[in-house]
Specification:
With 351 residues, this protein is an alpha/beta fold. The protein has a single domain, classed as Rossmann fold (3-Layer(aba) Sandwich). The chain contains 12 helices and 8 strands.
């Protein structure tokens, strides 16, 4: 083998090594990403899941509507039977690994105050179609599909929690939906920041070294949508005339304060903040509800020494859980949300 051939082979190997390293890292990132988002999340078995039957005055009208991926979403229009006319239509966006039924207490609360509500399950979640969740940007894509589907002469308001908090914040980047008001509960600002923080909890801080690859993988899956932030969407919504209220608890251990919508948006006359304390991630629940949930989980861990099965958990929660207390809302915070929506519909600044 002559010298030139050896040189060419050596150069080829040197060029191939970084390509192989890149491909290996991308495979690792894909496995990690799809391990979280690459499956469906069905309605979980629990006696504590809210049900429309718990609210006798609440009327539910089920609908389906199409996605851009050709499967169907399932949602419901909700309203209180004592109302014939409504102040506005509130569109609910739920949190990740969940569905809209968990938010029936909030839905019923607003329905009792004269609002009509549209709530739906996201891609790969509960009653909607889709093979899996796809990723964090999907919640805003799902909300944009819902907003294109609904036809109403009522003013449109948005309420979103966690994954849904990102959705209601970013969705204005998907089109002009003529939104009057947006309430953001425990939302995050940037999808990749959330992925890195949650990945570090699961796999260790080395995940931060994978940041460029994670961003690239999400870019491949979602295109330019992967770069949309809540901050950008709220700026667009405000410019289009929407009013925004943002709630976040400083002790939220799911979405850190630094990654929150609240910390990444500038307060203006049309954007108001509620910085709560000791409310955790489910910040609209009452203090008694938050304590009850924590006590149940701690007692379950003690009872089964941290290794109980799903069936044991269901049985334990059925025997020891108080469904009403488990979902009890914080009256003061809910009143602020209702006052905010009322003011947004009237076109006046909320207090």
């Amino acid at each position: 083998m002559d010298t030139l051939t050896v040189t060419l082979i050596s150069v080829g190997i040197l060029l191939l090594i970084p390509v192989l390293i890149f491909l290996i890292i991308m495979c690792v990132v894909a496995i990690m990403y799809e391990g979280i988002f690459g499956r469906r999340y069905e309605i979980y078995e629990t006696p504590l899941l809210p049900d429309a039957a718990d609210y006798p005055d609440l009327i539910a009208q089920s609908v389906t509507f199409p996605s851009e991926k050709k499967y169907s979403y399932t949602g419901c229009y909700y309203y209180n039977k004592n109302y014939k006319e409504f102040k506005a239509l509130i569109v609910f966006a739920h949190g990740i690994f969940d569905g809209h039924l968990s938010y029936l207490p909030q839905i019923a609360y607003f329905a009792e105050r004269g609002y009509k509500i549209f709530a739906y399950d996201n891609t790969g979640s509960h009653m909607s179609g889709g093979k899996n969740l796809r990723g964090l940007p999907q919640s805003a894509i799902d909300l944009s599909a819902a907003l294109r589907y609904i036809q109403t002469d009522l003013p449109i308001l948005l309420f979103g929690h966690s994954w849904g908090g990102y959705a209601v914040s970013a969705v204005s980047l998907y089109g002009d939906f003529k939104i009057k008001g947006i309430f953001v509960q425990s939302g995050f600002n940037r999808t990749t920041d959330m992925l890195l923080d949650e990945g570090a909890k699961m796999y260790g801080r080395f995940v931060y070294m994978l940041s460029p690859y994670i961003k690239l993988y999400e870019r491949i899956k979602f295109g330019k949508r992967s770069r949309y932030t809540a901050e950008q969407g709220i700026k667009r919504a405000e410019a289009n005339g929407a009013k925004i209220m943002i709630l976040h608890s400083v002790d939220d251990d799911v979405i850190s304060l630094k990654n929150s919508v609240l910390s990444n948006v500038t307060k203006t006359p049309n954007i108001s903040f509620i910085s709560a304390k000791n409310k955790g991630h489910n910040s609209m629940n009452s203090d008694d509800s938050i304590r009850h949930k924590a006590d149940l989980e701690n007692h379950f861990i003690e009872e089964y020494h941290g290794s109980g099965t799903r069936a044991q958990r269901v049985s334990f929660y059925a025997e020891n859980g108080d469904k009403h207390l488990y979902h009890e809302l914080d009256g003061e915070l809910m009143a602020k949300a209702a006052e905010f929506f009322d003011s947004a519909v009237r076109g006046k600044k909320s207090k």
